[in-house]
Amino acid sequence: MMKMLVFFDSRGLMFAAIHQEAVLKWFDQVMIVVIIALIIQLVIIRPRRLPTPSESSGPSDPDVPYRVFCRDYDVEVEADKIDKVPGITASWTSDGMLAEFNKGFAAWRVRYDFAALDVAARIRAATRPEVLADTVVSLLVDHSGSMRGQPMLLTAGTVMMTSDLLESLGAKQEVLGFTTMRWKGGLSREKWVRSGRPSRPGRLNDLLHIIYRAAGSGRTPTRHYATMLREGLLKENLDGEAVAWAALRLRQCSEGRKYLIVLSDGAPVDDSTLTVNSGDYLEKHLRSVIHEIVQAGDIQLAAIGIGHDVSRYYNRSIVVSAPDDLGSAALQLIEQLLGTPSADASAPGGVAPASSPEEGGDEARAKSSNLGEADDRPDRRT
User: Fold this and answer.
1) Angle between helices 357-365 and 281-296 in degrees, nearest 10
2) What are the domain boundaries of the chain?
3) Less CB within 10 Å around the terminal CB: N or C of the chain?
4) Pairing, β 300-306 against β 207-213
5) Which tens digits make up the pLDDT trace of 341-357?
């Protein structure tokens, strides 16, 4: 009887030992899975941080003016010096890479180059050469993260085509781009944190403004426009300050007819600024800047929206549903602006007075031509 107990005790102990070992192996596997999931959540996905009660300013306050917490870290740079900007991938514009860039939109460009010849002929027939010589056009390109890939490739092609068209007409042109130095705040935000996080700090990211072609400069090399596709360049977008910057540069030009065309795929967004100010803070500032330019009457504003209804901001606008239609939109807009001299002749300085988006209403929107309907995606942005 004693042997039997010992025999059963031994089997029982052996079974317990085997069971315990299996449980430990299962537990280790579960813990590994949990750790991997946490790493993915915290490092790779990086969800947007919600503002704390002390940081959030709550609903919109119309009495709070736009302000900038710090301008010390803003950067304005020419495209051929972009390598000096921290966080931008080192130069890749070798001959091989430029060939790839040109190949990316070669067939697209051929199609629109022929259309550009027809547009140029119609503009010359409608507008005197001396009027075109007294014209400067600024192209302001949104460099937000959502423009990455085909939208930016075809935007670069559109800018090159438009620049060549304007040059053939004898009009001056300027090409500018705007983004931020970092995602979700830069050195300005760090300074704000060190200062004790004061409420309503205003803009908290560092601007990056790029000059691809200055008004009156010579022909821009293709490699400058290829810079738009640099890895790490496209980030957030503060449209209001970018439009004000482009307008300031235009006002330094001596030409009597000044035009500013914005190419964008969404509303202004910068997480670091919007988490500590009202949700419409940047949009309100953009509308304010546009209103000031319209009231001054010295610059005509227009915009091309890529899947985004820019008519909510700009009185004269075209919306395309796909980047492939950008060429048609640019040609149509240039012909509207430069091929209607009768409207310009009655205004001081050769510029027709424009109404604000708020004042224009249905009559103003009727001047715009939608080549495609904007889709239902949210205004922005990752």
Assistant:
1) 80
2) 78-365
3) N
4) unpaired
5) 544 433 333 333 333 33
